[in-house]
Amino acid sequence: MDEFSFIDSIKQRSYKQSSLLKGIGDDAAVFRQTSEDIVTAVDTFVEGIHFSRDTMQAFHIGYRALAANISDLAAMGATPAFYLTSLVKPESWHVQEVEGIFIGMKELANSYGMDLIGGDTVSGKQLTISITVIGYVPGGKARYRSVAQKDDIVFVTGTLGDSRAGLHLLTENNSYEHTEFFIQRHRTPTPRVEFAKSLSKLSRIALNDISDGIANEAAEIAEASNVGILLYDESIPISPFYTQFSLKQQQEWKYFGGEDFELMGTVSAQEWPFVVQAAENTHTKISEIGIVTERSENSNVFMMKNNKKQRLNKCGYTHFK
After folding, report:
1. Is residue 183 a part of any domain in this protein?
2. Mean pLDDT of 88-112
3. What is the mean pLDDT of the chain?
């Protein structure tokens, strides 16, 4: 199958977004939007760094890659609309496997009414996927990391450490319970789009998606807002059966494991009840896990554990280490 035949095999035959004027089939896509702000994000995923065929099928690779991008839109309070995918294909990957990647993306995209409107495919030495997503948010309602204020409540959705636990189960031969739950959380995460969208009426809220671990995400909010953040260790939510792992693993994974694609946020105490109600309305687990403080000279993120306050370093996954 040549490049043009492959593109024809993955392109959509019909589109869901009414704002789209021209999809795949020309030099560029065209869409028109005047009533809302446009939000866009891009991520690149490289075999051997972000995914492996040892732990994922092609379907899961595509699904999770798009989920990571959609989670970025959720953190901005945006509704996903379009995505574009560029892919570098090595000889070791069959065309059918690459099609499986696109099937995984399409499966998730359909859940949000997203349209594939373009991209590129080239040959290369290492499988690489680059995805650009586009979404909409009501005018002036995009959510930023830079608006946290002292005495805000710090919260998080879902449970943390599950994805890293799932990866552990896929690479170790030890016997564990409820392995499918953790593996699913690793392979097919659920971006918190509906929950984030339901917060649009709040006057102020800072959001960040948990892709590199909550320690990293808390530091990013603290740095952008010029504040400090204190997290309560006993309040960090974990899944049932998470305690079957060692204490060291539990601690490391829930703070630094990453790729849970939950949302962390800060909001005033006055508007916290509205966040709780939004979580109930969207069937989203939510936990109050800390408080925003004044910025410290020594660090900007601390953890309270066993009645002792300790510095929480920003040491989640970084690509340029």
Report:
1. yes
2. 95
3. 93
